[in-house]
Amino acid sequence: MSSTTGLNSADSLKAAKQKDRQIQSELMAVSDRVRNNHPSLVKHQNAVGMGIFLTSILGMVLNGWLYFEGIMPVWMVIVLSAFWTSLLHELEHDLIHYMYFRKTPFWHHVMMAGVYLARPLTQNPWVRRHTHLHHHKVSGTETDLEERGITNGESWGIRRLLMVGDNMLAFYLRIPKYFIEPRRLLKEGKVNHKDLKNLRLIAAASFTPLGTTLYLIWHLFVLFHLANGIAWTLDAQIAWPQWLLAQQDWVTGLVVVLIAPNVLRTFCLHFISSNMHYYGDNRSGIIHEQCQVMNPWYLLPLQAFCFNFGSTHAIHHFVVRDPFYIRHLATKESHEVLRKQGIRFNDMGTFSRANRMHTKEHYAGINEAANA
């Protein structure tokens, strides 16, 4: 008998779906109260989104100008620009759900292009729209490309740590899986030939010339300074060619102003997101098994660069309609609903379980009960 027989019985699935509907109903009521209390945020949603977009872009430009003028130190440029990119990520997520300028496509796509160019190490947002909407349908399953792409479900170790903040390494350190697994999923009937074609198209579109070039620059920049650091500890000096040294000014400027802030933001977001989502033993389509609320105080430094994602994203899985700022205003009351309904908070065992909801012992208990 399957270890998940008890969980996947018709009555159990019916009860789970009913629980999802109850949670959605209660969270929608919270959302309605926030919307009624802040009607201007709803009435002028397009303007609010555009205002946040322009402020964030101008903030990054200002940081860059202050750096090149020698006014703002490197660490401050990276930290502040990482914060602005976290806002742009929230906007991209809202745009993927068509929350801004739905009826005026020109401005919608202008914003899509802007949030992408300010975060060029990310997946093309028009492509990500497909993977993200699919994520909502199949979160935690083998075809959830969005979360699995950022290491959800992988065992923790140095390899995963390297992949969390680097999308290029996340691909190259898992090349066999990218080639072998789609065929296995097809053989097992979990995807069809059309799905397989789409998976390959999405994977190919994820590697844009801009993102690949910037990742190469970042890797070479890190290796260059790492080599110099090792040489310095050995009281030696590397005789770099003059043409390479001549590139350092513009490369350093690009890294400080654009690449490093995005690497910092990417690591923080992917660390939080890949560990607050469950993988592998949750039931497909059952929302309350898809993710937890992850907001312990010691993760606040990471939350600062993904706009408190761990605290609010579980709400989004139930109520998709709200832009991120409405969701944040509703957080306190929404958390009360989630706690009452048994949604997990700060389940740090997820790190040792490779993001599974349960331990093997849990399923052993289900087996015993099912066979009794």
Q: What do you see in this structure?
A:
This protein has helices spanning 10-37, 39-43, 45-68, 74-96, 105-117, 125-138, 145-149, 158-164, 167-172, 175-187, 193-206, 209-233, 242-245, 248-276, 300-303, 309-318, 324-329, 331-340, 360-371. It is an all-alpha fold. The protein has one domain (10-157, 209-371). Helix 3 crosses helix 14, helix 12 crosses helix 14 and helix 14 (248-276) packs across helix 16. The termini are close together.
Structural classification: mainly alpha
Give the overall shape.
globular
Q: Give unreliable regions as ranges.
A: 366-372
Largest sheet: none
- Helix-strand topology string: HHHHHHHHHHHHHHHHHHH
Helix content: 55-70%
Quick overview:
The chain is mainly alpha-helical and 372 residues long. The protein has 19 helices and no strands.
Give the helices and strands, then pairings.
Layout: H1 10-37, H2 39-43, H3 45-68, H4 74-96, H5 105-117, H6 125-138, H7 145-149, H8 158-164, H9 167-172, H10 175-187, H11 193-206, H12 209-233, H13 242-245, H14 248-276, H15 300-303, H16 309-318, H17 324-329, H18 331-340, H19 360-371
Domain Fatty acid desaturase: 71-346
Region (Disordered): 1-20
InterPro entries: FA_desaturase_dom
